[in-house]
Amino acid sequence: MANFLKKTLSFFSIAAISTIISSSVVSCGMSLDYLMNREIDPEVYRDTYNYNISSWNTAHTMQATDAIVLSNTFETILSTDQYGRIYGALAESEYGAENATKKDAIYNYVGIHNDDFSEWEYKFRKENYWTSWDGKKVREVLPSDILKAAKYALIPSNASDVSSLYTSFIIGADEIFSEIKKLIDTNENVTQNEINAVFDRYVNEGKFGIIVDDKKGTVKFKLKQKAPFFESLLTYSVFSPIFDETKSDIKNFTDTAYNGAYLPKQINANGKMILEANPNYVLHDGVNIKRIEFDYLDGASSSRNRTLFESGSISGFNLNADDLKGWTDYVGDKYENPKFEGVYSTKSVEMAGTFVLFFNYFNRNLSDASRGEKEQKRALNATKLLQSFDVRAFLSTNLDRSRMVRYFSKTIDEENKPSKMIRNVYTGLSVAQDPNQENKDYTEFVSDYFNSKTSNKEKDALKDGNDPLLNKSKDLEIQKDKDELLNSINEYIKTNNITSSRSDGKIELSFALSPTTSNSLNPYVNFMVKAFNNIENNPIYIKTWTPTSTDDYRGVGQEGRTDLFISGWSPDYKDPSTYLETLLLDGAYRGYTGVGRLFAENKANDNKYEKIPNTDYYINKAVKTTDSFDILKKMLEFREQNDANNQEVDITKRYEGYAKQEYEYFYKNFFMLTLYTKAMPINYTVNYIQPFSRSYESFGTGQYKFYKAYQNKKLLNRSQIEEFMKKYNSALEEVNKDWNSCRYGPEWKNSNENNNCLK
């Protein structure tokens, strides 16, 4: 974890804190200088939200849009501070340092670990309480509440988003999940007690890798893999305790209890959400902002948050590159030297986030009579089409991503160059670095492997802002140009009896777009799609459509009712596996990709299915194509690679193995297409929240938490920002040298500060 602390402050542009150039002006000649003198109530933070809470159960949802609220109402075992340092939240921060029998020269872990990092132990803080939404203390938070979360996640019928993290990391979890799944699949009348008995048996017989002791207040994790990064995973909610595992997918916020810094007081769908400080929160003395108000904002333009801030309706905003007026008023012509004095730059929490285009290999509409015969037939043909290797290669190398991504980057892009915010590696930038090679970023390992297998020899060929795919299929391992791909696709369509429902004879793929971005990103997506549809002799036609609500849109993707879908992933922990685990046959994205529907288990007695030779899987005969078996073969190889890489503790070899695995998924088999990052090269913010009074880490949920954050009554001016950043740089340097330095607040037993430290 020492290497986690070695941050760079290059993201804070020195130019951003230089002398002000001139006053900024908004519409009607009104000067932005008035914003510098406006005062607010520092105990109330106001913001917007775009998606309703899908579930009030952290063992059920992995949605980042849920985490904005859930991370503040449900606490994690560990969390991250403003220096990127991991500390104990529900757990005691110093337990490892005080109790580990074997310690490094500098012991910078929260818990106790064994020699190969496959076992970890933590102790819960005292005075941890569950509290009802109306502020009534319910009972203590116990280590055994983690078992409740595990039980919920490992029952397949609960459709937990986080189950794959249990099965990937915890000893016995995969066996529990598989046994319960088989029990459900083979017994129509199975009872909840029978399902619970499977989980309880593994726990009681010591075959499950989460061992709790409520009397001592301890929890031990026994892992399937060697994971020196494991503590970064505990900053995410996946292994956090829940109040009641029997409540399932909780929709009403009053139906559960909370242990986080805030309590939900008002939750109105498509309306207002209000959180208030939890008086029973174990670290309540570190909560400075007492009330958080979120107002629903649906389908707004990129400038909406800026104008809401200017009117005083919200407390801050990030400047969007697609907000041309805002960019002109606040930044001006010189990207590295913004005009407005109240602008500051921090590390973007979106740096590690990657958005991708999913190809759905089994559109659920094909077996749903309620969708109508025409849609069922279209979905069947689309399902068969996307199984084609050549179709996926054609889509990946002929969709001009810059036409879409330009929406985010048009103010900073160079003419006739790809968008600066195209992303080519699924694992996000800055997620993992190799200390043996001067902290070489993992994405460079993928670029190196890409160069070894293709004709591209450009250093860091897959860095953001390059386009190694567009019209370059001949340079890749596929070694087919556009015409050769089209010939292969037409032959595949004929061989697999794929027919068109369109008058022009093309095979139609449906592409669901978010209603939230109807007036912003969607027109750019359509621009990209139109160019693709107009390719000469193209037998494929992409039809975009927009569900009626954001909840419907999210459901369409999760349930696999569209052929193409955009979604993003940000890391749960600091290792490439946090991304690659999502792509497994039973990974978190199995619903989006449809592989869990295309390849089924336990279908020996179902005449609709055919067993795939030399495997335990079956395929629905109706969707079988000449490429089906090859898809499964490649997916099983991917799983084998992943299992091997998970056991490698040599960082360099581990990253090299993952790089090969990731390259083959995206650039050899084209199972998915990476699209963009929302992180600009420099991230500009206008906000009353003090810079670096909260976490900016992209892994875990610390980035969403308001614990320790505080607001200034007025925006900081440029000289104040410059003075603060000098102090922050000194403090960060102290922490990088000594993990025990610059400690203050209730998360630490003892303060350890000097003149270089911040409060």
From TrEMBL:
Residues 87-587 form the Solute-binding protein family domain. It comes from the Bacteria. GO terms for molecular function: peptide transmembrane transporter activity. GO terms for biological process: peptide transport. PROSITE patterns: PROKAR_LIPOPROTEIN. Pfam families: SBP_bac_5. This is Oligopeptide ABC transporter substrate-binding protein. It comes from Spiroplasma litorale.
